[in-house]
Amino acid sequence: MGNRRRFLKKKPGEGHVPSPSLFQKYALTTPDTRPAIFSFCTDPSSLPDWQWMACYLTTGKHMSIYWSVLTVLLLLAITAPAALAFGFAGASAARSRIAPLSWLGKGYIAIVRGVPDIAFFLFFVIALDQMIEYVRHRALCPDWSEPIRQGNDFVVCAAAKMPLGTAPQWVHETYGFFTAVFTFAIVFGAFAANVLFGAMRAVPRAQLETAEAYGMSPRQTFMRVLVPQMWVYALPGLSNLWMVLIKATPLLFLLGVEDIVYWARELGGTKTERFTEYPHGDWRMWYFLALLVFYLLFTRASEVVLERIMARLTLGQATTGGEAQRKAA
Amino acid sequence: MKSILLSTVAVALTATFALADGHSVVRMGTEGAYPPYNFINDAGEVAGFERDLGDELCARAELTCEWVTNEWDSIIPNLVSGNYDVIIAGMSITDERDEVIDFTQNYTLPDPSAYVAASEDVDLEGGVLAAQANTIQAAFIAETGATLVEFATPEETVAAVKNGEADAVLADKAFLTPIAESDADLVMLEQEELIGGGVGLGLRESDTELKDKFNAAITSMKEDGSLNELIAKWEIGDGF
């Protein structure tokens, strides 16, 4: 504490501060100007335990972990339907009668499922980012003469940067977030495609023959008979994928998005009193315990919802589950 | 005629450079987990010696700077692929790193690396020593007879000593001093290792203009003594 106060002195005329950025708002030189959530948080070292805890859990740093929970939930909310869309497109393509389309679908499923997630995340995202910048570079800076690859460096003109170097930090973060969504959707889409491909084949042949006998075109048979019936076969596989996706979010850090696990490790680490108002020992165990509870509750909630969906989908189906429902009714 | 031609060339060159190094915002990449060099403070912002230093350097070089954090393991690849423009993360200048990126002049003197252990009688020759991966300390232990265990974050290297996984941790003295002082279970050994050539800013090799600007700013801070003030304030080691 005493040490920190000593640091605050500044010579007059020295240290001209550049225009405030996101981070500079709360720089170390003004640690106490941020309005605390609770009015009693001015001198944490003198507080009783529960108040200390209340102040500790509402520091700006802890707000970051709460935000990251929302980030992860938002990511899941966007990624799940996106992955399903990729999966549906992949499965439909794979069973297409047009050969090249079928190769494309099968190739997508085989390649993405075969590559380790981490390798895919590191390689694909960098390649995607550089491809976007390369295309923008070609379009926006036609008179650029220097090579784009200079040894290890990937150099494009400032106007082609994605996002622009001048963009505020939140734009960078949003861009990173959506690259993450896109990458997750492609990876999990491939697995979903395989599940849906199998589910489409599991629909009883008799159902499709009946549709044909009624004079439906292949397209109508697909949309009106096959697709509505396949979900009941797909759901167990898709629910597995959903559970894996929930737990895959720490991969986000590879993409520069700070997720819950990153913050739990950072916040739980030992803090010495020179660098914080809230010194504590190695509390990582408690933070990870909280994560454990969070993930378990989340998984449980998912299970409940999935069970309901399953009951709904089984209704009137020619499966054992559907038969049981019919008898019970 | 000749002078017109020359001035055209000059204008064209300046224009290219303005485009090439048009760093209206310079993004500073740091680790945020290595106090006192850099850490995340209670408000959730980057703080530490390098935060103060970086802001002052940017002010002197008349640049607008923005701070971002990145994991240590991927801090060089992400600089090279352009996610940020500068590495300011307590990174010692070494030959291996210099092959991939460029460094400014050093802004700290070589800080001796120290050992922190659970007790004084540790076998540094044949014991198990912890260090952060991809650091000069990890490279140093790998050369000795001791067994090296590597961790992704500095925090984990210290935790490894506390839970007995490693006999001692080797890291920059400035990082270990506050830890050894505040924890009764840990002692700092007298033996120190002089490795590394001081800490500098890391930049892309193609970014020569930005490097010159930062070099000039560091020189001016060395000359007027403000760098030494920062080093003393954050207890980084000896001043210049």
Average pLDDT confidence of chain B is: 85
Supply the helix-strand structural class of chain A: mainly alpha
* Lateral arrangement of strands in the main beta sheet of chain A: 1-2
Number of helices of chain A: 11
Number of helices of chain B: 9
Known CATH architecture of the largest domain in chain B: 3-Layer(aba) Sandwich
Write down how many β-strands of chain B occur, each being a DSSP E stretch of 2 or more residues: 13
Number of strands of chain A: 2
What's the CATH H-level homologous superfamily of the domain at 57-259 in chain A? MetI-like
Q: How would you spell out the order of helices and strands of chain A?
A: HHHHHEEHHHHHH
Largest interface: A-B, 68 and 62 residues
Query: For the record, what CATH class of the domain at 57-259 in chain A applies?
Result: Mainly Alpha
Based on secondary structure, the structural category of chain B is alpha/beta
CATH superfamily membership of the largest domain in chain B, which one?
A: Periplasmic binding protein-like II
Structure commentary:
The complex is a heterodimer of chains A (329) and B (240). The longest helix of chain A is centred in the N-terminal third of the chain and has 35 residues, at 60-94. Chain A is flat. In chain A, 64% of the residues lie in helices and 1% in strands. Mean pLDDT of chain A is 82; it is low at 1-33. Chain A has a domain at 57-259: MetI-like (MetI-like fold), CATH 1.10.3720. In chain A, helix 3 (60-94) runs antiparallel to helix 4 and helix 3 (60-94) packs parallel to helix 6 (169-202). Chain A is mainly alpha-helical. Chain B is α/β, with parallel strands linked by helices. Chain B folds into 2 domains: 25-109 and 198-234, D-Maltodextrin-Binding Protein, domain 2 (3-Layer(aba) Sandwich), CATH 3.40.190.10; 113-193, 3-Layer(aba) Sandwich (D-Maltodextrin-Binding Protein, domain 2), CATH 3.40.190.10. Chain B is built from 9 helices and 13 strands. In chain B, the strands form 3 sheets. In chain B, strands 5-1-6-13-7 form a 5-stranded mixed sheet. In chain B, strands 10-9-11-8-12 form a 5-stranded mixed sheet, with helices on both faces. A 3-stranded antiparallel sheet of chain B has the order 2-3-4, with helices on one face. Chain B starts with a helix and ends in a 6-residue tail after the last helix. Chains A and B meet through helix 3, helix 5 and strand 2 of A and helix 1, strand 4, helix 2, strand 5 and helix 3 of B.
